[in-house]
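Entry type: protein chain
Record version: 2
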Amino acid sequence: MSVSLINLAYLVASVLFILGLKGLSHPRTAVRGNLLGAVGMLIAVLATMLDRQILGFGTILAGIALGSLAGALLALRIQMTAMPQMVALLNGFGGGASVLVAGAALIEAVGIVERPVTAQLTVATGLSGLIGAVTFWGSLVAFAKLQEVISGNPVVFAGQHALNAALALVALLLGAGVALQPESQGFYWALVAVSSLLGVLTVIPIGGADMPVVISLLNSYSGLAAAATGFVLNNNMLIITGSLVGASGIILSQIMCKAMNRSLANVLFGGVGGVAAGAASDDEVYAGRIKGAAPEEIGLILETARKVMIVPGYGMAVSQAQHAVRDLTRLLESRGAEVRFAIHPVAGRMPGHMNVLLAEADIPYDSLLTMDEANPQFEQTDVAIVLGANDVVNPVAREQRNSPIAGMPILDVDKARTVIVVKRSLSPGFAGIPNPLFAADNTLMYFADGRKAIVDLITAIKEG
């Protein structure tokens, strides 16, 4: 294929990527956006294979078949509750691929005597190795935390920030070595090793409460690594694609940070999730104030409710209660109640986690309200049902300046006339602090697994 046709194909693919991202901004167009992005990637891959004058396609086709099989199995078998872990792994695979491709390109370039090794190639190779390795190992740690292979709490030790700063400095020096002496392959692989350790140590001190931000940030890293690899290979398509992923990831990270009223630096270096120093104990907050309720009692309250707001949290995801929630919604609506869902931007373990689960259960998107849309309505809400959420409804964020979540925008469920909290226990959220909402005068605690609680509640309403 001529250079003009290759560039035209890349242009078409780039347009499809941009249209795909635009489509993903709304659930109604998300499927179409995903398909547009997939078609764009197919065009980009085919054009690249034809442009690079591949000597043999057998190995490549075998890799495509193997990767397609693995992707299909993951897509079919991974539960929606495990989607954050899968996203973390996919981010990591992108970073790992960048490390290997850039390393192979450097070995090839140094081995060809008649081809000059340019500064663009060496500098971009160093960046690919650094960012890609940090992304790969950081994503594996994020996966392990989300999968509960290791603790989701921050892992901290004395001198941690100083060690990370030293590793970053060593990585930069090794990157300079790659740029100045590319024929010394040891510089590159030493850079990869140091960056790998940096990736692990950067993510382990970040608590589970900040995982949505970490996932979107690692997604941005994988895009930047891909863009750097595009400069290594002189591939415009890879540069464009990586730039789109990098930019969208960092924008999403900033949105998540704004939703928590924290800076990105605070997330990375002051993660929430450990034991909160100076926080009130559970006994001080809960003793003698908790009011439990049975499904029959809650059913009677919902019988007279005209406006109901449901606040989904990670507990809904763990119990896979979204379909039962849909059935409860339809039952209440059939009896004249208005039911809406209040979605906090960082509810769950990845951006849009609750939206995806509710969409899976065919709950209309128009019923989903953002935090800014929902908060003014809580004072007119008869019943607010909190399903497995904790920190995002904790009024401590508004009331205590020394709290780990001080200043974080929350859903004002405590302003509803009656609050029903569905939880298996009084265990704290990722912030590690008790929630006074559970002991409020207008709150009833319904202790049960999320899905079983909603199913029993449906039964009680029907029988009542």
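Comment: The chain has 18 helices and six strands.
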